[in-house]
């Protein structure tokens, strides 16, 4: 009998990357920067850090591996801790926003790209690290793109420092107690076009031989209107007709995933005794770690696993045993219309590159099949590659961070791909209007420095800091924590109990809008002494509320440090609402004749999102946190407000625009 570790070791030895260990380590040790390209599942993310550990790089400092996704950082570090044979949070750990499982001992650290940017703010030379691996570079998330430039310059500064130490002799080195070595950079990607990385980092590209079996691709004959239904029918057909092998279905997000899970479980109830069973495993950000790990565990014999995933399963994580892939061809994507100034979350078609990655997941262990729920003609209409996030997102958050990192000239920064100038200007204007930049020369203000320290979007940071003046820091902390749980909703609405769920929700609903409603939920949860039973009875997501408590504790540490102090406005909730206006004064919409709303800065026609407590009520004015586009533009997280507040609280903005003097029902 072999021990679990021996089994793991055997699995590791079979990974394609294993045979390349010597060459990889040699190249990495002889070069400052290296680009590694390898098929998804070849073992890059889990094995390379362990190779570097064996080569001694961990003795010189931490080996940090960035991940665009929180879920990937969590599940992969857990796996690696197991492989190394240490408890998670010891030698192997992870750090993501509001969740840190790392310690003094940690030498292999998985962290989100956003967290590494934050660390660079506090430690500009990233002194604790010997090596940084930028993983999933092909995803081109906004934070990874920022890290490209930032790390290139950290590497240069570290090299310069290392030179000083060696020329000025041991004395100086002793004085600084330890010698700061060079920073090694490794860029890892799952797609073949690594030329851009190679040029930008002046680095050699090493290809790791992958193992890919043929995958048959089938297309829909007709375009599908309802991809959930199409996915359901296809999955059941595979289950009934095809040989064993698990099914991976690519969906757009939690809502889709939960609906399909429910539909599948309904169908399962009607399975005849001679039919094999199914096990449905969802995987998306915001799922609890235990639930995420379920997708990785093998299911019993005579049972087929159906994994419902977002694009996280495209390249970030590999699940073994997949033989069938069902691709809806859709993805939830954030985009920013810099002309209109609207940031929106839309469900859009994937790129050809992403569709091919999805298909590839069916052929990792043997030949497989991929069902594309769109026509072949539509496939050829897809974009070749996904546009880097930096070219399609709101930049205010990263620009604030760049300024905090000491990069003042954000227009001429060494970007791998430049963002549109208009987006940069928009972001600078937003930061200026929030008071983060000094109006005289655009440098970071003292207030902006504080804003950058808070791990939330600039507008929320402004609200948190302003809560001191409005004497409502306790309320604001609760609301922002509730909005930061990374779950779509704290309200649970099972399809079979819609009426009861809605009834329960009424207990918390406030005519002031979603913010105060969330505050009511939070306060009642605290009163219930964090009771799970109370949550179930009230159709609330217990885990999201636990998370909110945890996030709040952490945010409070930040605000305490920044001198916000503790204050409460009691029943005078207008103070809370006014405080939110200081961060969201540009996000105001006015009601129109047909009960739609028009945003005042861009004159965009929007609707209050059905999930909002203000949905269906006619408010002359609403403030909203964000615009989401699905079939139309929806305003999410809405609050009622008084127009007079705008000129009072944001005079620099509203005396200029004077929109509110126009008749509202124009
Ligand atoms: O990074 P890359 O796509 O090259 O591969 P990886 O993430 O390092 O995965 C290597 C192997 O580890 C795959 O066969 C995964 O299925 C396995 N793995 C696992 O079984 N459980 C995890 N939690 C993570 C990875
Ligand atoms: Mg990987």
Features:
alpha/beta, Rossmann fold, eight-stranded mixed sheet, 21 strands, globular, disordered C terminus, binds cytidine-5'-diphosphate, binds magnesium ion
Explained architecture:
It is a single chain. The protein has 25 helices and 21 strands. It has 666 residues and is an alpha/beta fold. It has 5 domains: 205 residues, P-loop containing nucleotide triphosphate hydrolases (Rossmann fold); 175 residues, Rossmann fold; 60 residues; 128 residues, no CATH class; 80 residues, no CATH class. It has an 8-stranded mixed beta sheet, sandwiched between helices. It has a 6-stranded parallel beta sheet with strand order 9-16-13-10-12-11, sandwiched between helices. A 5-stranded mixed barrel has the order 17-18-19-21-20. Helix 14 packs across helix 15 and helix 18 crosses helix 22. It is globular and about 70 Å long. The termini are far apart. The C terminus is likely disordered. Cytidine-5'-diphosphate (CDP) binds next to helix 3 and helix 4.
Taking the alpha carbons of the first and last residues, their distance comes to: 79 Å
Give the biggest beta sheet.
Answer: 8 strands, mixed
Q: Tell me the number of strands.
A: 21
CATH topology of the largest domain: Rossmann fold
Q: Any idea what the shape is?
A: globular
Domain Helicase C-terminal: 232-406
Family: Belongs to the DEAD box helicase family. DEAH subfamily.
Protein name: RNA helicase
Catalytic activity: ATP + H2O = ADP + phosphate + H(+)
